[in-house]
Amino acid sequence: MRILLAEDDTLLGDGLRAGLRQRxxxxxxxxxxxxxxxxxxxxxxxxAVLDLGLPRKDGLAVLAAIRKARITTPVLVLTARxxxxxxxxxxxxxxxxxxxxxxxxxELAARxxxxxxxxxxxxxxxxxxxxxVLDPASRTVRRADQPVVLSTREFDLLHAFMLGAGxxxxxxxxxxxxxxxxxxxxxxxxxxxxxxxxxxLGSGLIQTVRGVGYMLxxxxxxx
Length: 223
Description:
The protein is built from eight helices and eleven strands. By secondary structure, it is an alpha/beta fold.
């Protein structure tokens, strides 16, 4: 799950990036508002963590600009501005959640997972397709109630598929969700991971749509 972190405090930003990565997020980190607005326009992030006191462009201005541009990326505001009027302003400007610093990393990760679930119309914490159940919080997968061991990339790819169940995803879209800046991507990496998922979870879960991409079938009887 790839997210954008916009935070100008180097020590805090480094800690948030490291902590969120440990909890399964791919994190792109920017340190000013102009860069945040630019990246949110350019990349399909699963969510964004946005500080309000950013240099070059205030976080509220970033938020207003992307919402005006109809960018629907879920945004969690993380800020030291803790008065009720400031919280109301942030939410009314387009924030999906508003958290006051300091924040516990486990809570931040849970809030981000909830934002992403809601943005995909998936209210439950666990995602289900056919006989496969994926728990994003514990990063575990079960098939027919039996545990399945997946690599980090295999889990992240399955998570992306299950969030977009029933929708065709191209290789480029999948790569954008799995890899953050600076990570090398082998030309056949997605195909290799899909092969492994089919081997571990059955060949009927992920369908190849020739010339377009791949689709996870939520119901085995649905083509």
